[in-house]
Predict the structure.
Amino acid sequence: MLPPTTRCGSNQHLIGRRQFLGDLWTGLGVTAGAGLFAHQLGASEVARQGKSVVVVFLDGGISQFESWDPKSDLDTGGPFKAIPTSVPGIHISELFPHTARQMHRMALVRSMSTGLDDHGLAKNLVRSGRTTRSATEYPELGAVVAKGLERPDDPLPGYIRTMESGVGGRGRDAAYLGPAYASVSIGAEAGGIANSNLPDGLTPQSDQRRQDVRRFFNERYRRRIESPEIDAYSQSYTQAQRIMERRELFDIAREPETVQQGYGKSEFGKKLLLARRLVEQEVPFVEVSHAGWDFHHNNFEFHLHYVADIDRPFAHFLEDLTQRGLLERTLVIVMTEFGRTPKINAGYGRDHYPNAWSIALAGCGIQHGAVIGKTDSKGVEVTDRKVDHRHLFHTYLRAVGIDSSGHFQIAGRSYPIADPAFGPIKELLA
C-alpha cells in the first residue's frame, strides 16, 4: 500500500470521471470538416507497419534527481545514490534497479526546459507540443498518432487510456481532428470491459436490428443536412459497438497466471499488461498513467515507495515487449509535466521546477543508450543541448514514421502537425 500523497492544493487534482459519451457534445464546436484530410501523413505505408506509441505518464511531476538525472551534490542531490546501468557510463537513481538493466533499450533526455510550473498548463505543453493556454486548442500527441497511424478497418480506437476498472470515458483532446481521434478510457475488467454485455433479454439479432434502424435514420437525415454533430454521434455509437465486439482483448484475466505475476498485481502492473495486449493488436497510441507524484513534502519517502511501485513492472514490460518482438515497432515514452526543484524545502519536499528536468524513452525509432543534454552539478540549469516540448513532439512523431513537418488540411484551413518553428532532436533518432 502506497502512503497518501501531499499535493500542492491545486483544483486540478479534483477532476471527476467522465462517462463514456458524456463529454462528446462539448467538443463538437471544432470538428467541422474533420474528415477532409488532404495530407495523410504518409499514412498508408506507415500504418501497415503496425507501429504503436505507449506513454507512461507520471502525473504530478516525478523528480529528475530521484530518477533519470541523480546528483551527488549534498545541497540538492538528496539521500539516494546513482547506480550503473546496462550501458557503460550511464547512471540513474538507485531507486530504479530493474529499469537500469533495461537501459540498453532506452534513451534519456536530461535537458528539458519548458518554463511553466502549473500542472494543467504544463500538461498541455508536453501533450500537445505547443505553447497553449487551452487543452482543446491543439490535438494531443495521442490524437495525432491515432490519425497518423490510422488503419480505417481497425475496430479499436486509435487512442486508448488504460484503467484498472471503471466505466471509462471519452476525452476532449483531439481539437480540430475531431472526436474520432479523441482518447477513450477503458479498464481491464475481469471478463472484458464494464457494461459491454447486452442487457438480459436482448439478443444479438435484436440489437443488430436496432442498430440498423439507428443507422438508417441517421443516414437519411445526413443526406439532407450536413452535420458534424450527427457524424460524431454516429461514430461514437459505431466505435462503442466495435469495442463491445472485441471486449475479450481488454480482459487481462485471459493471460496465463505466470504472465500476470510477471507484471504484478498492482493497478499500474495491470494497466501495463493491458497496454501490452493492445500493442499486440497494433493500437496506435496507448497511455498508462501513474498519479500522485506531486511531493511538496516528504519527497524522499514518497519516491522510495512510488518508484518501487513502477520500477519492476515497467522493466518487465520492456522485457516482455522485446521477447514478443514488439519493442522494435513500439515507442515507449516515460513522460511527466515538469521536474522538481533542486532546493529541498522545509518540509523535505521538492516543488515544481520546469527549468531543467528529464524524460526517458525506449523502443523503436530512437538511438538506444543515448543521453541527450546535461545539467550542472546541482541540477539547476541546463548546460548542454537545451530542448523543450516542441522538439520532443517532432521527435516522437518522426520515431514512428510520421512526417512532423506536414500539415492537416481541414475545411479549407491548413494546420501544421507540429510547431513549424522547431524540429526533432536528430541525434536521438535512429
About this structure: Residues 217 and 223 are 10 Å apart (CA to CA). The chain has ten helices and 17 strands.
